Amino acid sequence: MTIIRSIIQDMRSRSGRVVQDRFSTGSASAVEVSDGLSQSCWANMPQELLREVLVRIEAAENAWPQRKSVVACAGVCRSWREITKEIVKIPENSGILTFPISVKQPGSRDSLLQCFIKRNRSTQTYHLFLSLTNALHDDGKFLLAARKFRRPTCAGYIISVDAGDMSKGSGTYIGKLRSNFLGTRFTIFDGQPPHAGAKITKSRSSRLLNSKQISPRIPAGNYPVAHISYELNVLGSRGPRRMQCIMDAIPVSAIGPGGSAPTQTEFSVSNIDFFPSLPFFRSKSHRMDNSLSGPLASQKDGLLVLKNKAPRWHEQLQCWCLNFHGRVTVASVKNFQLVASPENGPAGPEHEKIILQFGKVGKDLFTMDYRYPISAFQAFAICLSSFDTKIACE
């Protein structure tokens, strides 16, 4: 283990130097950076020994912040990167978020991934963190950031993987949430196709992307992945809002035995250049069909629909309540739990599982727990839709 630790320390220092060189040259290409990494002194390690070392590191570092050692391994050289890609499992199977692309992949099948959201009222920004402990608040591992925008006819949020750069023209942009005029209906847009055959939504930004005046680094477009609607709350202020989420990119069969949800495996070309410390995502081919799995176009099953879990009446408190198992401490109309809706058949055990729960624990602090088949990006966007006041529904 002492040798492994020395290797990791050397890898981190090399990764830091690569990042500095990448930004100091400015015009350095992805190929040049990749070629530079291939000259690492660790590149010629025997494949059997290399795999054994990486397997031990991946197994030992099963939580953040130690998990950054696994990320460092992927940044050593091409051979290390390819083996790391084979060893590291997606969140659906491992329950662990490792690389940035993990926020676009479905969560764990076995348990809820615990996260929290911090709100900054003055800047209208929201930051999503992965909980590092079971406490309701800790330092957390940063995952995503969102900035609210307003227009005469709608409002919404730009979602980014960089808290310091939340603009749609940035390579760190991964999607957005947009509302209607009343703020009762929302659409979640992904910056890249969520599955093979996904159709782009025509908009001013997508039309500009076809122009030669626009940098090729701007994200590819707007792909609708979910529609959220809020309904009249017949329970009044004592009950949670009524909401429904239609997941355009996830078939209803995904929640059943043997079901699968589309899983993105890498960021698009426009996003890759902005992760110089993670050459894990670079490859010689960037064809769109290679970055996606689980095509939805050929499936005729219905779409997954998420609805509020029905609250129960608490006689002592004289109000409607939901059991958040200690993850929510402040009563709020924003609190909710979403489960799969049995739209086309009888309810089964899979319809009892909480897929997403969101609740208030402080003035500007909220917990967000999600699981398969939705991703952290989709869960974050759904939670962002609850922050606005909805006069028509309350």
Give a written overview of the molecule.
The protein is an alpha+beta fold. 22% of the residues lie in helices and 24% in strands. Helix 3 crosses helix 5. It is globular. It starts with a helix and ends in a 10-residue tail after the last helix.
What's a concise summary of this model?
This protein has helices at 2-25, 30-37, 47-60, 68-74, 78-87, 91-94, 204-209, 269-272, 376-384, and strands spanning 113-120, 125-130, 141-150, 155-160, 173-179, 185-190, 223-231, 242-251, 303-308, 312-314, 319-321, 336-340, 354-362, 365-370.
Task: Write the SSE topology.
Blueprint: H1 2-25, H2 30-37, H3 47-60, H4 68-74, H5 78-87, H6 91-94, E1 113-120, E2 125-130, E3 141-150, E4 155-160, E5 173-179, E6 185-190, H7 204-209, E7 223-231, E8 242-251, H8 269-272, E9 303-308, E10 312-314, E11 319-321, E12 336-340, E13 354-362, E14 365-370, H9 376-384
Antiparallel strand pairs: 1-2, 1-14, 2-3, 3-4, 4-5, 5-6, 6-7, 7-8, 8-9, 9-12, 10-11, 12-13, 13-14
Helix pairs in contact: 3-5
Helical proportion, percent range: 10-25%
- Which architecture of the domain at 113-196 and 220-263 and 300-387 does the CATH hierarchy give at level 2? Alpha-Beta Barrel
The average pLDDT score comes to 76
Low-confidence stretches: 15-38, 204-220, 270-300
Overall morphology: globular
CATH homologous superfamily title of the domain at 113-196 and 220-263 and 300-387: Tubby Protein, Chain A
Just give the CATH class of the domain at 113-196 and 220-263 and 300-387. Answer: Alpha Beta
Q: Largest beta sheet: what is the strand line-up?
A: 1-2-3-4-5-6-7-8-9-12-13-14
Strand content: 15-25%
Largest sheet: 12 strands, antiparallel, barrel
Q: Can you count the helices?
A: 9
CATH-defined topology of the domain at 113-196 and 220-263 and 300-387: Tubby Protein, Chain A
For the secondary structure, the number of strands is: 14
Span between termini: 58 Å
Secondary structural class: alpha+beta
Q: Give the C-alpha Rg.
A: 22 Å
- SSE ordering: HHHHHHEEEEEEHEEHEEEEEEH
Pfam families: Tub (PF01167)
InterPro entries: F-box-like_dom_sf (IPR036047), Tubby-like_C (IPR025659), Tubby_C (IPR000007), Tubby_C_CS (IPR018066)
Family: Belongs to the TUB family.
Protein name: Tubby-like F-box protein
